[in-house]
Amino acid sequence: MSFTDRYKISEAHDIASLDITERLGITPGSYDNGLISILDKRLSEAVLKSWRWLLGQDAIALAATATGDIFFWSQGQTSIYLLEAQLGQSTFVDKEADYFFNTFLVNSDIEEKVLKKPQFELLNARLGNLTYGDCYIAEPWKMLGGSENIDSFSTGALDVYLSLTGQTIHQIMVKNSAA
């Protein structure tokens, strides 16, 4: 099953596709009411701006989860990674974009554990569908002692959230390295 067979676009955003997703015929936009979003060039650049210190200048954000984690392509490593924004950690996913979109993301275990579909369904019922460029955000953030209780979430702009988490993680790491 391919990405476009499994996920239905809820809100297309046909402005400047990334080369990787364009080659695979995947349109930027929000899919399955925001469970996952495929990023266009503008949003891809904006969400990683405050993470360049960690990910490097060659990282390209491909997709975002409903809770603001990012799948990105590292040109230097020729690989796709998952950036968990609340932890400031990236995890290797695969070296092939076709495998990532058409095998990895359509796997039901990945939907449940990585895309957090059960949590998404509760948040979606409570807060409504996500529009392109938005995500669900726990307040306070988990890294600052938040619990990620369903009632603690609100909706916010993905690029602003990732800018703030990137800056916060950077400050925490600088402080910890100086100690």
Describe this structure in words.
The mean pLDDT is 95. This protein has one domain (3-178). The chain is built from eight helices and nine strands. 36% of the residues are buried. The chain is 37% helix and 25% strand. With 179 residues, the protein is α+β, with helices and mostly antiparallel strands. The protein is globular. The longest helix is centred in the C-terminal third of the chain and has 21 residues, at 158-178. Strands 1-2-3-4-5-6-7 form a seven-stranded antiparallel sheet. Strands 8-9 form a two-stranded antiparallel sheet. The protein has helices at 3-6, 19-23, 41-48, 52-55, 97-104, 108-113, 117-127, 158-178, and strands at 9-12, 29-31, 36-38, 59-65, 70-74, 79-84, 89-94, 134-138, 153-157.
